[in-house]
Amino acid sequence: MLFGFVINPYAGLGINYRMKGSDSIKDVSVSTSYSIDRARSFLLDLEEGIRFYVPSGEMGENAIKERGNMVYDVITNPHPPFTRDDTIEFAKKASEICDLIIFVGGDGTARDIVNGNTEDIPIIGIPAGMKMYSSVFASTPESGASIINRVHRTGNMKIQKGEVLDLNEDLFQQGTLDVKKYAEAFIPLADEVVRDPKNVYSSQDTDMIAEYVLDTMDDSYYVVGTGTTCKMILQKLGFFTNPLGVDLLKDKKLIASDIYPEDFKKYYSEGRVKLILTPTGGQGYILGRGNRQINMDILKFVKKEDLIVISSQQKANDLKALRVDMEGFSEYFHSNYIRVVIGYSDFRIMKLLSS
């Protein structure tokens, strides 16, 4: 089996610029590249002897060389500032040589790979973007490595179709989620692939969930995550904030909206901190995707028992498990199960999968 491997060095960098996506980021330093770190995690779990075809430099070759004991050939030579055309060009050449293209990025990168994949060979994404609604991504870099190791060892790869979705990033920055299907792609048939795209659910249960959360609030700080279920809590208090932003409440008053870790530290003085989260529909992520404004810098102020996960019953019914894709979370939260509020004083225990 021959594998193409490419990194979008700008994927995921939006968090550094207080943005909810990375598509418009160009010509910036990749010294703090989130996607390159994710690529390292993926490569570290690979077995030796796998042959790769890669772009030169930061789009692939450097990470492969850093990993060591990998066989590779350079087939394109992009130069910074990198553009989507570099990804498309690589995908075109890789599709003529390889059996599978591995990319590190988000939905925008997936679109570029499909655009250049003239031979329609299978693809697999290593999740590293700000937004990942497509069903072509492994659940974590490590699970992506498991897929590649298995394919490499057996020389066989069963395939299925996955959807490549993307959204209007201008509307996304303003808090409007406009996700559309862009294409379908062949992907490896594997349990490690998160196949379900984001589903849209009715608000039948969210009203009662919000009432319960408000009735049980104390004098703690409340970090309220992204999503319409979380925002119903604020709306009942008369606050209409960006559904894709993270907000801070205290004494049922809005202290700050659309916050990032540095903002939390500015507004927090002392006292208990509780975190309200809701899973993404279809995929089930409560942390690490769609709300990267919440990281371990905030979680270290939150006791494990003060993680409040809320979900409509319909959404919870459709999810096999909840997921977290955040480095350090497993050490913070040791349990494989978590309590979920699904109604007024109504709960469900759900399995929790974390990287």
Structure in words:
By secondary structure, the chain is of the alpha/beta class. The chain has two domains: 3-194, no CATH class; 206-354. The protein has helices at residues 34-44, 61-67, 84-95, 107-116, 141-154, 169-173, 206-215, 228-236, 261-267, 296-299, 313-318, 329-332; strands at 3-7, 51-55, 71-76, 100-105, 123-127, 137-138, 159-167, 179-188, 193-194, 221-224, 247-250, 253-256, 273-277, 285-287, 302-310, 322-324, 337-343, 346-354. A nine-stranded mixed β-sheet has the order 12-11-10-13-15-17-18-16-14, with helices on both faces. It starts with a strand and ends with a strand.
Instruction: Give me the count of strands.
Output: 18
SSE order: EHEHEHEHEEHEHEEHEHEEHEEHEHEHEE
In percent terms, what proportion of residues is strand? Answer: 25-35%
Q: Helix coverage percent of residues?
A: 25-40%
List the defining traits of the structure above:
18 strands; 355 residues; 9-stranded mixed beta sheet; 2 domains; 5-stranded parallel beta sheet; alpha/beta
Helix-strand layout with pairing:
Blueprint: E1 3-7, H1 34-44, E2 51-55, H2 61-67, E3 71-76, H3 84-95, E4 100-105, H4 107-116, E5 123-127, E6 137-138, H5 141-154, E7 159-167, H6 169-173, E8 179-188, E9 193-194, H7 206-215, E10 221-224, H8 228-236, E11 247-250, E12 253-256, H9 261-267, E13 273-277, E14 285-287, H10 296-299, E15 302-310, H11 313-318, E16 322-324, H12 329-332, E17 337-343, E18 346-354
Parallel strand pairs: 1-2, 1-4, 2-3, 4-5, 10-13, 13-15, 14-16, 15-17, 16-18
Antiparallel strand pairs: 6-9, 7-8, 10-11, 11-12, 17-18
